[in-house]
Amino acid sequence: MFIAHVNRKGLSLHQKIPFPLDVMGSRLEYLIMKLLGKLTDAEWLYRNDITKNAVNWLANRVVIPLIHGEVVTPEEIERIVRRLEEEGHTIALGLCECRHGEKRMEEGLEEGRDPNYTCVMIGDWGKGHLYNYPHDYRPISADELLEITRFWFDRGRVINAWGCSTLHGFFISYCHCLPQYCVPLRHQLLRGNVVFYPGYNYALIDEELCQGPEDCEFNCSLHCHFGAIAAHQGKAKVDISRCHGCGQCFLHCPTGAARGVRKENYELIYCAKDVVYPEG
Ligand code: SF4
Ligand code: SF4
Ligand code: SF4
Question: Is 24 left (phi over 0), alpha (psi -120 to 50) or beta?
């Protein structure tokens, strides 16, 4: 199932797991998302302390150590995708496995683009998806993919890299997620288990420049999926403890009041800092 090992000195990905396991895992991924979606939504499980603790134990001790997401901005993922292409790794775009598993497809097209085709599979994990689902996945160039990423980011989606933190940082995919469809994001927001690790930045808002959510044409408080922005005395205010650095506010704020601030001495696992910020 695990494909790409992130070398701390760069993004040299190398195969560690036999390819047949990639094929099998990618074939079954949608069923895993379906199961996790059912465990997330089953209210009865969370009413009883024993079953609630059992699900939370499963989430925190088994599932999240095996796979978790790291929130990134469009610029950060651009650096990663360019490096992946330079190094010759497979990059495949295809059907969102959460939507696939839960059979909850978005209707219609956005400017000719299908909103359900938002999963990006990397390395042998990508080859596995291309092998299993040749009608739903296709190889894609960095240029086309980055344009698509920006397109969905500008329509409110959170970009995050996925991998397996306990097996030396295997990087397998990145996604453009919305809480209405994304099982892991829904799980985090509903049940409080942290599946999305915050990215390299947090947002700060300059009160002087902020027009205030009520008068702002963008109103970042409506675009923060992590509930980190609220109106305070007529201005937008960020709760840094909730901010995941997704960039929805600071890359769309019409006045420049919201800005992203880099965290000091902070490292993500799949988005190695020397790839994402080669300038230091
Ligand atoms: S994590 Fe996001 S894009 Fe990926 S499969 Fe789930 S909803 Fe789709
Ligand atoms: S988008 Fe900018 S101006 Fe608008 S409410 Fe948010 S911080 Fe204020
Ligand atoms: S405050 Fe801004 S950067 Fe932070 S999570 Fe919310 S939208 Fe993303």
Answer: alpha
Both 110 and 185 in one domain: the answer is yes
The domain of 213 spans 202-262
pLDDT of residue 41: 96
| Rounded distance from Cα 68 to ligand 1 centre (Å) | 12
Per the domain annotation, does 268 fall within a domain?
no
Q: What share of the chain is helix, strand, coil (3-state, %, to 5)?
A: 40, 20, 45
> Per the structure block, which two tokens stand in for 85?
């292409």
pLDDT at position 38? 96
Which residue's CA is the closest to the ligand 2 atom numbered 3? 210
Does residue 276 carry a pLDDT above 60?
yes
Look at residue 277 and tell me if it is in a domain. Answer: no
Q: What is the CATH number for 249?
A: 3.30.70.20
User: pLDDT per residue over 212-249, tens digit each?
Assistant: 999 999 999 999 999 999 999 999 999 999 999 999 99
Counting atoms of ligand 1 from 1, which one is nearest the CA of 100? 5
33 found inside a domain:
yes
Into how many domains does the chain fold?
A: 2
CA neighbor of 95 nearest in space, from 105, 87, 84, 86: 105
Q: How far apart are CA 21 and CA 132, in angstroms?
A: 12
Q: Which atom of ligand 1 is nearest to the CA of 173?
A: 4
pLDDT for res 121: 94
Asked if the model's pLDDT at residue 4 lies above 60, the reply is no
**Ligand 1, pocket-test mutation among 116, 117, 175, most atoms within 8 A of CB:** 175
CA of 62 from ligand 2 middle (Å) equals 39
Query: Domain check: are 148 and 178 in the same one?
Result: yes
Residue 10: inside a domain: no
